[in-house]
Design goal:
With 734 residues, this protein is mainly beta. The protein contains four helices and 42 strands. The N terminus is likely disordered.
Length: 734
C-alpha cells in the first residue's frame, strides 16, 4: 500500500532519530565526565584555512555582548563587529566565507544592535541585491526580493531549516530574538531543497552562552511606540554542561496607517546540553502573538496613491499566533566524522478582517466590501547529515551527505460581504460592519524528501565544491466551499538540482571564484483559479572575487550573475486591489552586478557599503509584458552605513551612526507604462555608553530621517513609503 508524504517523512524522521540515539548512547559510554567542558571552535587564518582548536587558543563565536556561545553552534558562525568570516549557511560546513564560490552577505548581531532594527526588512535593507519596500508601508508581512525574485514564501529559513509561509500565514520575525542573518545569493536547492531562485535568508536564533549575559531594555518612539525587551543567558550548573537563554519582547504601538497597530508579545527559550567536547544538544523555541491591520492600502486614483485609507477602524484587524520548537544534535565520532540532526515543528494561525472599495468613488461616495481570512499553516522539517573529512593523495575532502524532509498543512477559509458606503472627502466612521460568513475554503498538504551530497575538495589555494540533490514532492489540494471542498487534486514532482563552484585563495587574501547552480522549489498554496502551484525551477551562472584584507577586519565581495527562472510565484494586487494575491509566471531573467564591503576597525569605526545593478526581464507570459522589466525593481541601488564610537577622552563612550539608501527610478507596472521616481532614505543613530554606570547604554535611532514620501507603485498599484520613525532606548547589561 503506498505511503502518504506524512507517513514517509515520519518514517525517515524516526529512523534518523533512532540513529541519533544509538550514536549518542555509544558516545556517552566513552565520554569523559566531570570538569568544565572546553568546546571546539574554529580559527580562520588569513590564508583561509579552518583549523579546529580546543581550549582557549581558538577564536570563539560570540554575541554582541561578548559572551561565547555554548554547544556545537559555536563553530558554525563567527563574526567580529560588522564582519562575518564563517557561516555554515553557505555550505553546511565550517568553510570560511572567503573560500565559498558563491556570494554570501551577513548581517551581524552588532549591526542589528547599532541600527536598532525593528523588522526583518530593516535588517536586510543595506544588503546589495535585496529589495525591500516594494509594497511601501506594510507591517503585516516581510515581503522582499533577492536578485529580483520574491523570497517571501520560499526564501526564509531559520537555523538552516525552511520556514513555511503562504498567503496571510507568514511568520512574523522579531529581530531582537536573532543572533545574525545570512543571505546566500542565487539558487541553493542543491543543499536546501525548496528555496528561492534569488537566494535564501537564514535567520540565526539567539543561543545559550557559556558566560552569564543579562540585559533589560526599554524603548519609546513615534506612533506611540512602547516596547520592553529582556535577554538572559548563561550556565545552569557548576559542571558547565547545561546552558540556557531566555529572550522576550512586549510591544504596544501604532503605525503610520491610521487603522493598523504593531503590537507583539514574544518569548524565545533555548537550552543547550554539552556533556563533553564531542556531544551537543540544543533546543530552540518560540511563542509569539502579534496584532496588526487586515489592510494597510490607500485608495488609488489616476495612478496616484491618495490619503484615503481602505480600512475602517471597526473592521481592520490581523491577529496572529505562531510557535516553533526545534532541536539540534551533534555527535563527533572520532577526529574526522560528525553526525548532525536538526528538526523543528512550527505553526502559525492567522485571522484577518478588512474593508476594500468597489471601484472608485462616484460623486464622492465610495462603495465598499468586506473580507475576512482564517488561515493555518503548520508542519515539520528535518535535516540529518553525516560529515567526513579525509584525504586522497594531495586532495583534502570535506564530504557531507544527508536526507531532509518536510511536511506542511495549509488551511484557508475566506468570506466576503459588504460594508456601508462612505464619503471620501468627509469620511464618517462608526457604522456597524457585519462579519461575512465563510464562502471559500481550501487545503494544501505537501510532503517532501530530499537526498543530497556535497564534496568540498581543497588543493593548495583551490577549493572545488561539487553538490547534488534529488527531491521527491507530493502535493494534495482541495478547494471549494466550507461544506464541499470538492475533489482532491494530487500532484507528484521530482527533480535534480546542484551546484558546482571553484575558488582560489591567494596569499594576499584575494579569492576569485565561479559557480553554476540550479534550484527546484515546490510552492505551497493555490493560484487564483484554485489549482495548486507547479514547482519553480531556476539556473544561475555567477563569477566574482572576494578579498579578505590581511591583518584587517574587513571583507570585500564583487560578483556578476545571470539567473533564469520558470514558474515563479509573485505577489500582485487582486483585481479589486483589496489585497495582494499570489500568481505564477513564466520565464524571468535576472542579470546583475553586486559589490559590497564590511569592516570593523580597532579605532571604534565600523562600516558597510554596497552597490547593486539588477535588471529583471519577463521572457514570456502576458504579451504586454514580454521583454519588459519587472516593476518596482530599480536598476541601481547604493547603500552605506557607518558607526563610530569615541574610544578615549571626555567623550569616551559617545557614538554616532549614519546611513544612506539610494534607489534609482523603476517601472511602476510590469507593462512599463509609467515610472517610480528615484529616492534616497537617510538613517541616523546617536548612542552613549555611560561611563559612570557600567552596562548602561542610551541610544536614539531614526529611519527615513528627512521623511522621504514619494509613492512606490508595484504591478500598477501604488503605496505610501514608511514615514520618519524615531526610537529612543535605554539598555542595561549586568
Amino acid at each position: 500500500m503506498p505511503r502518504s508524504p506524512a507517513t514517509r517523512f515520519l518514517r525517515s524522521l524516526l529512523l534518523s532519530s533512532a540513529a541519533t540515539l544509538t550514536l549518542a548512547v555509544a558516545a556517552q559510554a566513552q565520554a569523559p565526565t566531570g570538569g568544565v567542558v572546553q568546546l571546539e571552535t574554529v580559527t580562520v587564518d588569513t590564508d583561509g584555512d579552518a583549523n579546529a582548536a580546543v581550549g582557549g587558543s581558538g577564536s570563539t563565536t560570540r554575541n554582541a555582548s561578548g559572551a561565547p556561545e555554548a554547544g556545537a553552534s559555536a563553530a558554525t558562525f563567527q563574526a567580529d563587529g560588522y564582519v562575518a568570516t564563517l557561516s555554515d549557511t553557505a555550505t553546511k560546513t565550517s568553510t570560511p566565507l572567503v573560500r565559498v564560490p558563491q556570494s554570501v552577505s551577513v548581517v551581524t548581531e552588532q549591526q542589528l544592535e547599532d541600527r536598532n532594527v525593528q523588522t526583518l526588512l530593516e535588517a536586510v535593507s543595506y544588503v546589495p541585491g535585496v529589495r525591500v519596500g516594494a509594497f511601501g508601508l506594510d507591517p503585516r508581512f516581510d515581503a522582499f526580493f533577492i536578485r529580483g525574485f520574491s523570497a517571501t514564501y520560499s526564501g526564509i529559513f531559520r537555523d538552516g531549516l525552511r520556514e513555511f509561509n503562504n498567503g496571510f500565514a507568514t511568520f512574523d520575525i522579531e529581530p531582537y530574538t536573532l543572533g545574525g542573518i545570512t543571505i546566500l545569493k542565487g539558487p541553493s536547492a542543491g543543499l536546501y531543497g525548496s528555496s528561492n531562485a534569488g537566494g535564501i535568508v537564514d535567520l540565526r536564533s539567539k543561543r545559550p552562552t557559556t558566560q552569564t549575559v543579562r540585559e533589560i531594555e526599554g524603548q519609546i518612539g513615534t506612533n506611540d511606540r512602547y516596547q520592553a525587551n529582556f535577554d538572559a543567558a548563561g550556565p545552569m550548573n557548576a559542571d558547565g554542561t547545561m546552558f540556557y537563554r531566555l529572550t522576550g519582547v512586549a510591544r504596544d504601538a501604532d503605525t503610520d496607517y491610521p487603522f493598523a497597530s504593531d503590537d507583539r508579545l514574544a518569548i524565545a527559550p533555548a537550552f543547550t546540553y554539552a556533556p563533553d567536547g564531542d556531544t551537543s544538544l540544543t533546543v530552540l523555541g518560540e511563542l509569539q502573538r502579534s496584532r496588526s491591520g487586515g489592510t494597510v492600502a490607500y485608495l488609488n486614483q489616476n495612478r496616484t496613491v491618495t490619503d484615503f485609507p481602505y480600512g475602517d477602524p471597526n473592521f481592520n484587524d490581523l491577529d496572529q499566533t505562531q510557535g516553533r520548537i526545534g532541536v539540534e544534535f551533534e555527535q563527533r565520532i572520532g577526529d574526522n566524522l560528525v553526525f548532525r540532526q536538526k528538526a523543528r515543528y512550527q505553526a502559525a494561525d492567522v485571522y484577518a478582517e478588512y474593508v476594500y472599495p468597489f471601484g472608485g468613488p462616484v460623486n464622492d461616495v465610495l462603495a465598499r466590501g468586506t473580507g475576512n481570512v482564517d488561515q493555518t499553516l503548520k508542519g515539520i522539517v528535518s535535516d540529518t547529515q553525516l560529515e567526513a573529512k579525509f584525504e586522497t593523495g594531495a586532495l583534502a575532502h570535506t564530504l557531507i551527505g544527508g536526507v531532509d524532509g518536510s511536511y506542511a498543512e495549509f488551511e484557508n477559509r475566506e468570506g466576503f460581504g459588504s460594508a456601508p458606503s462612505i464619503s471620501v472627502s468627509n469620511p464618517s466612521y462608526g457604522a456597524p460592519i457585519a462579519t461575512p460568513s465563510t464562502s471559500v475554503a481550501g487545503t494544501v498538504d505537501q510532503g517532501q524528501i530530499g537526498l543530497y551530497l556535497q564534496d568540498e575538495i581543497a588543493y593548495g589555494g583551490f577549493t572545488l565544491t561539487l553538490g547534488g540533490r534529488h527531491d521527491w514532492v507530493e502535493t494534495q489540494s482541495k478547494s471549494g466551499t466550507p461544506d464541499d471542498l470538492g475533489p482532491e487534486d494530487k500532484q507528484t514532482d521530482d527533480a535534480w538540482s546542484g551546484r558546482v563552484g571553484l575558488s582560489y585563495l591567494f596569499d594576499n587574501g584575494i579569492a576569485p571564484y565561479a559557480s553554476w547552480a540550479t534550484s527546484f522549489s515546490p510552492v505551497i498554496g493555490l493560484g487564483p483559479d484554485g489549482s495548486a502551484f507547479v514547482p519553480t525551477e531556476a539556473e544561475q551562472w555567477e563569477a566574482g572575487v572576494k578579498y579578505q584584507v590581511p591583518d584587517t577586519n574587513a571583507l570585500v565581495t564583487a560578483s556578476v550573475f545571470e539567473i533564469t527562472q520558470e514558474n515563479g510565484v509573485v505577489l500582485v494586487p487582486s483585481a479589486d486591489f483589496s489585497t495582494n494575491i499570489s500568481v505564477q509566471r513564466g520565464e524571468i531573467r535576472s542579470r546583475g552586478f553586486e559589490l559590497e564591503g564590511q569592516a570593523s576597525f580597532d579605532n571604534g569605526f565600523s562600516l558597510i557599503a554596497s552597490y547593486a545593478y539588477t535588471q529583471v526581464e519577463f521572457r514570456d507570459g502576458a504579451p504586454e509584458t514580454i521583454g519588459k522589466e519587472q516593476s518596482s525593481t530599480p536598476n541601481h541601488t547604493v547603500s552605506i552605513w557607518g558607526d563610530y564610537t569615541v574610544q578615549s577622552g571626555a567623550a569616551q563612550g559617545l557614538g554616532f551612526g549614519a546611513g544612506v539608501r539610494y534607489l534609482s527610478s523603476s517601472f511602476a507596472d510590469d507593462a512599463n507604462t509609467f515610472e517610480n521616481d528615484a529616492r534616497a532614505f537617510v538613517d541616523a543613530a546617536v548612542h552613549y555608553d555611560v561611563p559612570q554606570v557600567q552596562g548602561l547604554r542610551v541610544q536614539v535611532n531614526a529611519t527615513n530621517l528627512f521623511d522621504e514620501d514619494a509613492q512606490i507603485c508595484s504591478s500598477g498599484f501604488c503605496y505610501k513609503e514608511p514615514e520618519r520613525n524615531v526610537i529612543g532606548s535605554v539598555r542595561y547589561r549586568f
